[in-house]
Amino acid sequence: MKNLKIKMLSAILAFSVLVPFAQASAETNTKTIGEVLLKKQQNLIKKQELKQVKEAKKDQFKNYKETIKKNHDTNKGIREQIKTKKAAVKDIIKRIKDNKLQLTDEDIAKIQSQVDLIKSHKNTLLSTKGLIKDSRSKIKELFKNKDYDGIEAELQNIISIQGNRTNGLTQLSQDLDSLINILNTALSNAKK
């Protein structure tokens, strides 16, 4: 009987020690489950916000892409005009050489000045070469990271670069017009 009392006392003691431990453990697990649920809810909210931002930016991106396409077509047209004007310049120079015409010193100075101006504007254009490709690479990386504000900034950057290129190409086209006029004047003033 004494053994039975000791065993019962041991069991009661063990039970009294284990019950508070079990309650503490259950509370810890409850907090962990609550924290997990809270975290899942926060992630769900964040995903929904990202989806809303993505949908809002989608229309903006579409407008940017249309503007970029228009700018590209504009620049392409100006480049075609420049090619035609370069061919006209070469043709006039060829006529001067073929007819062995002597240009005046004044005409030579005007031509040289215009050629220097064209070189300067061409170098300015060359400084923007490759910047659009760099921005497109950045956009791909930003898209992977779902950084829609960064994508928007890069699209605006591309439009800005295209605007600078349009201005530069237009200036170069005007410079070539001036050179053609100077060469035609020199051609009419030339002596055999």
Average pLDDT rating: 85
Termini separation:
142 Å
Radius of gyration: 38 Å
Q: Indicate the low-confidence ranges by residue numbers.
A: 21-28
User: What is the molecular shape?
Assistant: rod-shaped
Helix content: over 70%
Number of helices: 4
Secondary-structure-derived class = mainly alpha
The biggest beta sheet reads: none
Signal peptide: 1-26
Keywords: Signal
Helices and strands in order:
Layout: H1 2-98, H2 105-126, H3 131-144, H4 148-189
Description:
Keywords: Signal. Residues 1-26 form the signal peptide. With 192 residues, the chain is mainly alpha-helical. The protein has one domain (53-189). 91% of the residues lie in helices and 0% in strands. The chain contains 4 helices and no strands. The protein has helices at 2-98, 105-126, 131-144, 148-189. Helix 3 (131-144) packs antiparallel against helix 4 (148-189). The longest helix is centred in the first third of the chain and has 97 residues, at 2-98. It is rod-shaped and about 140 Å long.
